[in-house]
Amino acid sequence: MDIPRIFNITESAHRIHNPFTPEKFATLGAALRLKPGTQILDLGSGSGEMMCTWARDYGIRGTGIDMSPLFTEQAKCRAKELSVSGQVNFIHGDAAGYVSDEKVGLAACVGATWIAGGVAGTIELLARSLCTGGIILIGEPYWHRLPPTEDIAKGCLTNTISDFLQLAELLVFFDQIGYDVVEMVLADQNGWDRYEAAKWLTMRRWLDANPADELADEVRAMLTSEPKRYATYTREYLGWGVFALMAR
Ligand code: SAH
Asked: Which domains does the chain have, with CATH numbers?
């Protein structure tokens, strides 16, 4: 079981697989006022940076599930590196439908809400693992500027404009499904640059090392076109944030 190989190639050197920087995760961890021993469930935990650093800085404990064997292995290595292997557990698997045996104080899906068919479905799934009064964390894109045309939305690698809401609309949506938004930390363009531009050097090095690979032509084409596409579309139109929610 794995995610499409192209992501394991382009994001192999990423510790954070979204437009957040280490500073943004530190800001979010502080904003959430995490108590030592808080149990976290993280669906789509990637390379585990959020839980590993929060385990180190705030003494949280937790479980992460991710479908990429590579990212899961990297998460385990990171936990060892930060001496938090006794606090966090990373499982390779499909997070769709995953409900924890014991209820957690914080249930997160940071940049992988397709796991349960979108934001609403993911909140419902996370809620099944959450103790009363617990916090749900959702990391999700929003339109920072509404694309004037569907072509521009496609340039941002979305299917259609209606795939995402604008920030205020997303906050209204959380309200409408019965949640208080109790915190939020938003990515900025520097964070987007770290996420997107870091792929370019990874792609270039991978191409130099794997010229005969079956994905070499695809990666070559991406490396040529991505900087311009990113600067023209995603960087101008797409925002991203993590939203902390509590059921009303
Ligand atoms: N939350 C992480 C990773 C976000 S990227 C971070 O902030 O860095 C999205 C992640 O979802 C990737 O790591 C990908 O491997 C994982 N993923 C995709 N589909 C999945 C599924 N069905 N179950 C579990 N993980 C999945």
From this structure: 5-143+163-187+238-247 (3.40.50.150)
